[in-house]
Amino acid sequence: MRHWHLYSECTGALLVWTAVGRADHVQAGHGQRRNHASVGVAAPGTGSEFRMTATHAAVPSAWAQRLGYAGVLPFVGLATATWIAEPGHRAFAGLALAHYGAVITSFLGAIHWGLAMREASRQSLVLLGWGVLPSLIAWVASMLSPPVSLLAIAALLWACLAVDRVVYPWFQAQGWLPMRFVLTCIASGSCITGAAGLHALETLF
Fold first, then answer.
1. Coil, strand, or helix at residue 143?
2. Are 184 and 159 in contact (CB under 8 A)?
3. CA-based angle 125:137:180, to the nearest 5?
4. Which of 129, 134, 144, 198 could pair covalently with 149 via S-S, beta carbons 3.0-4.6 A apart?
5. Cα distance between residue 153 and residue 165, in whole Å
6. Where are any strands of DSSP class E within 71-118?
7. CA separation for the pair 92, 73 (Å, rounded)
8. In angstroms, rounded to a whole number, what is the distance separating the alpha carbons of residues 187 and 172?
């Protein structure tokens, strides 16, 4: 009888130890999958989790789309004002449009610093250098005459998009490019419209 109790106690301890060991192993596996998914590394057996995370991160949310399209409203409004506002206010509308365009191009360049901060291995001089270049070009353009400034900013907006088409896929952010294309069309078209409106205003006087 005494042997039977000893055998039962040993068997129970062995089962408890095995169960705890399996639980720790499973928990460690889940933690490893979470870590790999968070840093964007596809480890064996975690490919589906990684793809799900990357897909969600690469597509702009509904709020991002609302804010993005709301951001072009000043472009459209100020460009329209260069044509239909009182003559004394059209020049101010063109100047405000050029300054707003300079701010937006600076924002587009700063995104590259944000992308570089996500991955230390990709903090190259080219990526970081381009991150500050749009703001410098826009700053110089803002000191030109408003019609020329608007045309320069329109060209700079397309240059930013061209670079982003190359860089965004490196960071699984290519899902933002379709919205970027639409926004660039509206913003650059507004700058060209504003430049034409200011040129028409100059011919009146």
1. coil
2. no
3. 80
4. 144
5. 18
6. none
7. 17
8. 25
pLDDT in tens, the chain (205 residues): 444 444 444 444 444 444 444 444 434 444 444 443 343 433 333 343 333 344 445 789 999 999 999 999 999 999 999 999 998 899 999 999 999 999 999 999 999 999 988 877 778 888 999 999 999 999 999 999 999 999 999 999 999 999 999 999 999 999 999 999 999 999 999 999 999 999 988 776 6
The DSSP call for residue 162 is: H
Where do we find the tokens 């409004």?
A: 77
Distance CA 83, CA 107 (A): 27
Give me the DSSP letters along 13-71.
HHHHHHHHHHHHHHHHHHHHHHHHHHHT---TT-HHHHHHHHHHHHS--HHHHHHHHHT
